[in-house]
Specification:
348 residues, mainly alpha, Farnesyl Diphosphate Synthase, two-stranded parallel ribbon, 15 helices, 4 strands, 66% helix, 5% strand, globular
């Protein structure tokens, strides 16, 4: 669940702490009385893990209303666990495969006890250098416990879609002889982007449809465009991080495929992603969902312009992020996010 965007400092993040609100109603003390929602406070730990392991998502998740905000927080952290295993340079190919398969089995039948066993494995043989990611791996039981407090339908969706991504990741890891990864051609690149990001777009769409019955009429179009939404963000991320990835043995840009062709695909996908967000807005998705989806698209547009001009590693400045967030806030206020996405301001 790696979204493209600027490296965002905590000070840029909206000062709202996510909370989980279960869709399971709790009865009042009076027999036969009205039903009410049960509100469960998010453990501060999960909010801290989000800040330590995310850039764009730490900025966008607070846009969401409950209970979707809590659901997406848990989902992001679980997808980040799978990403961390796949990216870990301290693990051999065999170790990555073993851990991805264990994680997939856990997601099939989530339990705090089994999550604790995986966390103990990571604690006994630490292979993650990034302190935030290392803590994330250790706190898997807390993430699963939070998932168990969500609406059962949402939790099943999150676990199932994370398991699908984990399964596809294992297939990519399993086909190479070393701990690295090299993609063969443009179709292979797109298959990888679907595995690690397109599936995320599909899961988010199902959570949005669960939260907003008003979106039912647009469900077919949203489901159709969801994979391109994820692919767009992943392609921009790959273009931005290509030098760092190559230095760690991951060559996502296939030999023989020009950067220009990948940039062109990313631009086409970003147009589709913009239509996806616009459809959410016009179909009554609400400011929270629209803001959550539109901001990474706007940041990806700005990032792609920087990378196309200055090369791999270029990032959007904090000043530019602040400007984009302000423009989006005004567009949300007046209901014109679609117009903003149709003509995003060029990066400064």
């Amino acid at each position: 669940m790696r979204a493209a965007g600027a490296s965002i400092a905590p000070s840029c993040t909206p000062a709202r702490t996510p909370t989980f609100r279960s869709r399971r109603p709790a009865r009042t003390a009076r027999a036969g009385g009205p039903l009410r929602e049960t509100i469960i406070s998010t453990p501060p730990l999960l909010s801290r893990l989000l800040q330590q392991t995310s850039r764009t998502f730490a900025l966008t998740i607070p846009f969401l209303d409950e209970p979707t905000r809590g659901e997406v927080t848990v989902a992001y952290l679980l997808f980040r666990v799978a990403d961390t295993i796949e990216d870990a340079t301290g693990l051999t190919r065999a170790e990555k495969l073993d851990q991805l398969r264990r994680f997939e089995r856990l997601l099939a039948h989530p339990s705090v006890q089994d999550a604790g066993a995986l966390a103990a494995l990571w604690r006994a043989a630490p292979a993650i250098q990034h302190p935030g990611y290392a803590e994330l791996m250790q706190e898997l039981p807390a993430i699963v416990r939070a998932g168990n407090d969500l609406d059962p339908v949402a939790w099943r969706l999150i676990a199932a879609y994370t398991a699908r991504t984990t399964h596809h990741m294992a297939a990519f890891v399993g086909r190479v002889k070393s701990a690295g990864l090299e993609l063969r051609d443009l179709d292979d690149l797109r298959a990888y982007c679907y595995a690690v990001a397109g599936i995320v777009g599909e899961m988010l769409t199902e959570l949005f449809l669960l939260a907003k019955p008003s979106l039912a009429g647009a469900a077919t179009e949203l489901r159709r465009d969801a994979p391109a939404f994820g692919e767009a963000l992943q392609l921009v991320n790959i273009l931005k991080d290509s030098l760092d990835d190559a230095g760690e043995g991951r060559r996502f840009l296939p030999t023989g495929v020009s950067r220009a062709s990948v940039e062109a695909l990313a631009r086409r996908d970003l147009e589709t992603a913009g239509r996806y967000c616009t459809r959410l807005e016009s179909s009554g998705g609400g400011a929270g969902i629209v803001g959550f989806t539109a901001l990474p698209v706007l940041l990806a547009h700005a990032t792609l312009e920087q990378v196309a001009t200055r090369g791999p590693g270029a990032k959007v400045s904090r000043t530019e992020v602040t400007r984009i967030v302000a423009e989006l806030g005004e567009a949300l206020r007046v209901g014109r996010v679609g117009a903003l996405l149709a003509s995003p301001s060029p990066a400064v």
